[in-house]
């Protein structure tokens, strides 16, 4: 297995490897192996090497360095990187002035010793679930390059799954971390709404946007999140004593049996059999669509009027449709959102963690245009967020957790993932559950090594 971020940082901090050597090796891997997967939009080679040399000098002088010392990482192409134009996966912004500062969460990771080495592919303006980008190409799933990586943080998830980067940053509005994490077999976190600063992150839907990390192990994910947040999380003493419940109804329909089997094993691990249903899940998903289209359309409307042909046609059409939605629909969607959030707060007085599928199944093939939902053929790409979109409205922290490799059934040979949801600010509970399940062999999917094989 590719070395974890925590292990890699220890080798650098204790002088077993230089940060410069690590960065040079990572840049070489990205230049060679990314030709297959198309995760990278820009390499930050000169800056990364300078940062590595500075870090090595500090270590040689005995100056304390952070917990992520020398760990290379990538950022979705909507995070500001000082000196570069933030393109948000588009050519529409190419003439904007370069960013004057790194995004705040990037600054925090650098303060912990991590080194940004690349910007990563995404759906244009984060409006999609597949990372099929008309300007920068389609990111392919490292588990099977004929399949989608998911989106819109597909470049981030695929780079981690391929073992090219120890971790990466993404954004999640309607599932843009959770969907690609699930399809690529890595861990991802949508933090509590508003917990991490969005300064220096190009917006999509301001009232729903969040940013978070993706990593190959849950331990790495926690350490990275703690660096982004600025402090360590409290430990959870009695994981087995937590009240766990499965989301049924909407979240159990049309799901690959292997996913439901994985949930059953987790319920057995906790000795709990409770199931709960979220009322109005289909309406909640529709509300997420309306809010996203309306806020996204309003953000882009002035530019759409001036330069409509610079957009990917599919993105342009969705944004223009959103811009003309009536205000009454937007208001009603937010009322439904408020009702849902209040209901979730009530539910979390009775349970500690909810479990749901992240997607209906494994990654679709790139040439596969439909999946079956409710007995009907529907767009695969439009429905990859079937289970993530309703939950986005709650503003709760959600951990995307890969199930172990499945050897039989429809999902055999490809990753499958779950969502773990907790009350606001309870990320520590999610990480505690994730680590317990990984230790028990009920969660976790091996990332690929430098050769391209699963390690």
Structure description:
With 455 residues, this protein is of the alpha+beta class. It has a domain at 5-229: Amidase signature (AS) enzymes (Alpha-Beta Complex). Helix content is 37%, strand content 16%. The strands form 4 sheets. The protein has an 11-stranded mixed beta sheet with strand order 1-3-2-8-10-9-16-17-13-11-12, with helices on both faces. A two-stranded antiparallel ribbon has the order 4-5. Helix 4 links the parallel strand 2 and strand 3 (115-120). The longest helix is centred in the middle third of the chain and has 26 residues, at 281-306. This is AtzE family amidohydrolase. InterPro entries: Amidase (IPR000120), Amidase_dom (IPR023631), AS_sf (IPR036928), Carboxybiuret_hydro_AtzE (IPR014087). Residues 21-430 form the Amidase domain.
Summarize the topology.
Blueprint: H1 5-13, H2 19-37, E1 40-43, H3 45-60, E2 72-76, H4 104-111, E3 115-120, E4 132-133, E5 137-138, E6 140-141, E7 144-148, H5 154-161, E8 167-172, H6 178-184, E9 187-190, E10 210-215, H7 218-229, E11 244-247, H8 257-270, E12 275-276, H9 281-306, H10 313-323, H11 327-347, E13 353-357, E14 370-373, E15 376-379, H12 389-392, E16 398-402, E17 417-421, H13 427-439
Parallel strand pairs: 2-3, 2-8, 11-12, 11-13
Antiparallel strand pairs: 1-3, 4-5, 6-7, 8-10, 9-10, 9-16, 13-17, 14-15, 16-17
């Amino acid at each position: 297995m590719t070395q974890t971020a925590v292990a890699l940082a220890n080798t650098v901090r204790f002088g077993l490897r230089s940060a410069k050597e690590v960065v040079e090796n990572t840049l070489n891997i990205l230049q060679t192996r990314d030709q297959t997967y198309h995760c990278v939009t820009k390499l930050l080679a000169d800056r990364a090497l300078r940062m590595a040399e500075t870090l090595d000098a500090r270590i040689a002088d005995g100056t304390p360095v952070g917990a992520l010392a020398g760990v290379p990482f990538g950022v979705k192409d909507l995070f500001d990187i000082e000196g570069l134009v933030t393109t948000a996966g588009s050519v529409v912004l190419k003439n904007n002035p370069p960013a004057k500062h790194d995004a705040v969460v990037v600054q925090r990771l650098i303060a912990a010793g991590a080194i940004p080495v690349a910007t990563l592919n995404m759906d244009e303006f984060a409006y999609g679930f597949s990372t099929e980008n008309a300007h920068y190409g389609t990111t392919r799933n490292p588990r099977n390059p004929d399949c989608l990586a998911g989106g819109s943080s597909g470049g981030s998830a695929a780079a981690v799954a391929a073992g090219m980067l120890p971790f990466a940053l993404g954004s999640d509005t309607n599932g843009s971390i959770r969907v690609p994490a699930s399809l690529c077999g890595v861990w991802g976190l949508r933090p509590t709404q508003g917990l991490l600063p969005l300064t220096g992150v190009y917006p999509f839907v301001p009232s729903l946007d969040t940013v978070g990390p993706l990593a190959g192990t849950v331990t790495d994910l926690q350490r990275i999140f703690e660096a982004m947040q600025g402090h360590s999380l409290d430990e959870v003493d009695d994981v087995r004593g937590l009240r766990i419940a499965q989301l049924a109804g909407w979240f159990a329909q049309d799901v690959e049996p292997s996913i439901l089997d994985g949930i059953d094993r987790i319920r057995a691990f906790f000795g709990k059999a409770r199931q709960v249903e979220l009322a109005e899940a289909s309406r909640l998903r529709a509300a997420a669509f309306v809010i996203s289209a309306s806020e996204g359309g309003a953000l882009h409307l002035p530019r759409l009027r001036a330069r409509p042909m610079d957009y990917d046609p599919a993105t342009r059409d969705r944004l223009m449709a959103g811009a003309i939605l009536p205000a009454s629909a937007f208001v009603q969607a937010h009322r439904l959102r408020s009702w849902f959030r209040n209901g979730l707060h009530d539910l979390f007085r009775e349970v500690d963690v909810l479990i749901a599928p992240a997607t209906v199944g494994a990654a679709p093939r790139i040439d596969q245009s439909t999946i079956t939902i409710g007995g009907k053929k529907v767009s695969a790409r439009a429905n990859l967020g079937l289970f993530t979109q309703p939950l986005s409205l709650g503003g709760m922290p959600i951990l995307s957790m890969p199930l172990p490799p499945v050897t039989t059934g429809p999902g055999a040979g490809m990753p499958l993932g779950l969502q773990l949801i907790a009350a606001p600010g309870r990320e520590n509970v999610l990480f505690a559950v994730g680590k317990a399940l990984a230790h028990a062999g009920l969660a976790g999917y091996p990332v690929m090594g430098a050769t391209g094989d699963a390690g």
